Amino acid sequence: MATRRTFIGGAGGIGAATFLGYAAAQPNTASSVLDAAPAAEAVDAAATQTAARDSIRAVNAAMRTNYAALKADLVKNLGPVIVVQNDAKGGTFTLIHQGKQYIEHPVAEEFELAKSIAHVPLGIYSTLAEYLSDKVPNVANADRIDPHDLDMVAMKGPATDAWTTPLQAFADKLTTAKNNLAAANLPQELHDSCAKILDEALTFIADSIRARAFDIASFQVFAKRVYPSIRINMQHAAAAQISGVQGLCRKWRAQIGEAAWADLYTVVLSIWTTSVLNQAEIIIKPMMNQMKVDTHLIDIPTAQLPSDPIGVALDNLARIVQDNIAAELVFVSDTKVADALKGKEDLLSDEILKELGTPVADGAAGAAAFRTAAKAKCPVNHSVSV
C-alpha cells in the first residue's frame, strides 16, 4: 500500500515538492524530505489506529445485524401472547396464538361513562391551571405542593381572566351531559353520583366566572365536595373492568387449552403514570400460571401509546424471549449476570456501582443502595433516580 511517506520518498525531490504545492526552489531537497518523515509516520499511525478501531466496531455491528434477524424471525413464532392496550374504554385486548390474532373490547360501556364524569374536576383544573398564582397558599396540604412545579404550571398567572371563555365552553359540555343523564339509563347509584359531580362543577364554574376569580383554596373546597361521588364512579368502573377482563380470559383459556395457557405471556402497554399497579395487570395476574407469572407478565411503559402497539409489544417480547435463552448460554458461569440479561438490570450496573463506591448486593438492593448513597451526598430534598 502506497503511503504519503513512501510516495514522497520515491519521487524526485523538486518534482514531488512541486506536486505537493511547495515552492520549486528548495535549497536542500533531501533535508526537506527527511523533516517530513516524522509527520508522515504520525499520519500513518493515526490511519492505522482508525482502521483498527473501525474493524472492532464492525464486530458489534455484525452482532446487531444477527440479533435483529433472529428477533424478526422470532416475532413470527411468538405465542400465546395477550397484548393489552389501555384506553378510555377499558382496554383493547389482542390474543396472538398459532399465527392468528383475536381482538376484543371486553369492558362494559359503564366503565367509560363512570370515568368520564369522574374526570370533571381534572377537566376544570386543566382549564384553570395556567392562571393560578405561582405562590403556594396556606392550605392543609401546602407542604405537598412543590413550589417549582406550581411555578411552571401557573405560567400565565391570575392577572388575566382569559380563562373564562374556555371554562364556559367546558361548562356547556357539562350542562349537555347533565340534561341527558337520565336518558343514559345508568344504575341509580352511578346516576346519582354523576349528577352530584356535574351539579357541583357547574356551581363552581358559575361562581368563578361571576367573580372573575378563583384560587387553589376555592378549587380544593369544590374538589372535596365531589370526592365521595368520584369514589362511587371509581367503584362502578372497577367492577365493570374486572367483569369484562375476567370473562375474556376465561373464554380465551378455554379456546387455546390449559397447556398453551400455562405458557401464556401477557404484555401490557402502559403510560408511565399508570405502569405501577396497572389495572389490567391486577386483573390478569391471578388468572395466569402462577409459576411463571413473574417472568411472563410484562409491563412496557411508554411516553404515549405507540401507533403500532402490537408491533411494539411483540418486538419487545421477542427480545425478552431470545435473551432468556442467550443468558443461559452466554453467561453459563455467572448466574447473576445471566439474571441481569434476562431481566431489567443493565449488565454494567454492578461495575458502575462498584466504580461509584456503592456496595453491591443484588440488582434491586444495589440500586436501592445507590439511591441512598446519592441522596446522602446530595443536600437537595428530592429523590435521585437511577
Number of strands: 5
Sequence stretches where pLDDT stays below 50 over 5 or more residues: 1-25, 370-386
Spatial gap, N to C terminus:
50 Å
Q: What structural category do the secondary elements indicate?
A: alpha/beta
> Percent range for helical residues?
55-70%
Global outline: extended
Number of helices: 16
Task: Characterise this structure.
Helix content is 61%, strand content 8%. It is built from 16 helices and five strands. The chain has a five-stranded mixed β-sheet with strand order 3-2-1-4-5, with helices on both faces. α3 crosses α13. The longest helix is centred in the first third of the chain and has 47 residues, at 29-75. The protein is extended, with a radius of gyration of 33 Å. Mean pLDDT is 87; it is low at 1-25 and 370-386.
Summarize the structure.
The chain has 386 residues and is of the alpha/beta class. It has helices at 4-10, 13-19, 29-75, 109-118, 120-128, 147-153, 164-180, 188-211, 216-256, 258-262, 279-284, 293-296, 309-330, 335-342, 349-355, 363-377, and strands at 81-85, 92-97, 100-104, 265-271, 297-302.
Give structural attributes.
386 residues; 16 helices; 5 strands; 8% strand; extended; disordered N terminus; disordered C terminus
